[in-house]
# Entry
Amino acid sequence: MKSFLNGNIALCKGAITAGLKSYFGYPITPQNEIPSYLSRKMIEIGRVFVQAESEIAAINMTLGAAVTGARAMTSSSSPGISLKQETISYMAGMQVPALIVNIQRGGPGLGNISGAQSDYFQAVKGGGHGDYRIIVIAPNSVQEMYETAYDAFDLAEKYRTPVMILSDGVIGQMMEPVEFNKLEKKESELSKKDWILNGCKNRKPRSVKSLFMKEGILEENNIKLQKKYKLISENEIKYELYMAEDAEVIITAYGISSRISKSAVKLARKNGIKAGLFRPRVLWPFPSKIINSLAKSNVKFLSVELTCGGQMIEDVKLALNGKSSVEFLGKTDGKLITEEEILNKLKIL
Amino acid sequence: MGKMLSRPKSLKNVALSYCPGCGHGIVHRIIAECIDELSIREKTIAVAPVGCAVFAYDYFNFDVTEAPHGRPPAVATGIKRTNPDKFVFTYQGDGDIAAIGMAETMHAANRGENISIIFVNNANYGMTGGQMAPTTLIGQVTDTTPFGRNSKKEGYPIKLCELLSVLEGSIYLERVSIHNPKNIINTRKAIKKAFQCQIDGKGFSMIEVISNCPVGWSMSPLESIKWVKEVFIKSFPLGVVCDKR
# Structure
């Protein structure tokens, strides 16, 4: 049986089904449905909800819950995610698994409150300081908001890393039918962790930290992190290909842009243009090898994004490594790109 | 004759990295003794600060997490709300708690979080080379107030206990000092009361410990103790500031 609900609520339901124990948030549009829904739901099911005094406090509360082994989450939108960057860096260095949700809005600065995709660089290049990466997942439907929130905790715990769901105000607030196809995780089913802080009963005291002052120790820890990132890059690539086999022009797009692009591909095919779509479902690690394998001298690429200058296009270019050319179509005035606009661009490529 | 005194179980058998004459070692020992006496070592999760006590997890013999500068009360909130059966305290300096982390401190107190804070006030940023702290005294020379703290430019020393005392969520607040044995004994009593406050589920407690920083103050250890007695605690009066237990 399917339910009809918006992306933000679907995400909450996925996280709760996965065993979300503690949520900490702060109001900001367009993610307000998340704290609003969880403020009631979490209390009803005997879990933790706190409205923090700031986005900074919210993510540090999340850090506190997560070092004790609990499944913990915080959510915000672009300006609030900027505030959280310091602690995301700490979480990466301390190797603390947690879920951070960014329902992107327009920037820079206060920008506006409608959906955007201009936090791509911040999310995948590491918005905080230091030599780190986080896994970035990009759902493109309300169903995927539910499913990626459910899967994110397993992924975070598997690699002891923060995971970000990079969504946007459109997917967060649009309504679609959702199939609740995941099984409720019980606390007893969750993997046992040998690093968490739960009191030193019958064991040696532990600490969780990112400070490595003695000579050589920081380097050692950073090499360990890089090995982990290599492993993630090998194992966690996820993407979707649509009509790309015979395509002469391949659109690269994620999130809401990929939904519009898919319709544009259908429209283009009707107009005799051999178009296809490549959609990264995970943005870091980026599916560079797959993109490179699609590159041919007679295949052009078009990066469609809700950004003004183009962000993901830079990773597409790196992946193509000169084997194909890539053009850009973007928008940031709060309106969505239309299928017709994409079609018109495809016509002149 | 039997052994009268030994290292508390809650302190690891390692050398502390604090400067000669620094008060942190005394405060560490008092905390460790209180935790031993209350038999809560095995359910303690402490939050270490950024500042001189950044290595606290190397010294305390129980679980300790790191926190970004100023954020220990938020981290402690996350730990305690998720694990109400654990004993949670933060160890913080004046810059951490009353400058960069003022919002986290005020709101943790205002929510009445059932946590304890040990706040070591030594009127300067010791770790970074003795810069002005929010608690630096008027006229006090520091690395960044070379002409002495001027209230017209740098404002006034923040009296955190008094500031928190107006919040309804604050349950137990006391300012103590460790400049002589009498005050050390009193500090021990105060910290134990604060910890008991949490164990009894009564809510937010903070003990502000006035401590000396001979290196940061460019004094000998003895001079620094004299300065605490004759100058520092004149500006920061000792005593219970709030007690709603």
Summary: The mean pLDDT of chain B is 97. Strands of chain B lie at 44-47, 63-65, 87-93, 116-121, 124-125, 131-132, 170-177, 204-210, 239-243. Chain B has one domain: 24-243. Chain B touches chain A at residues 41-45, 47-48, 54-55, 57-58, 60-68, 71, 74-83, 86, 103-104, 106-107, 111 (CB under 8 Å).
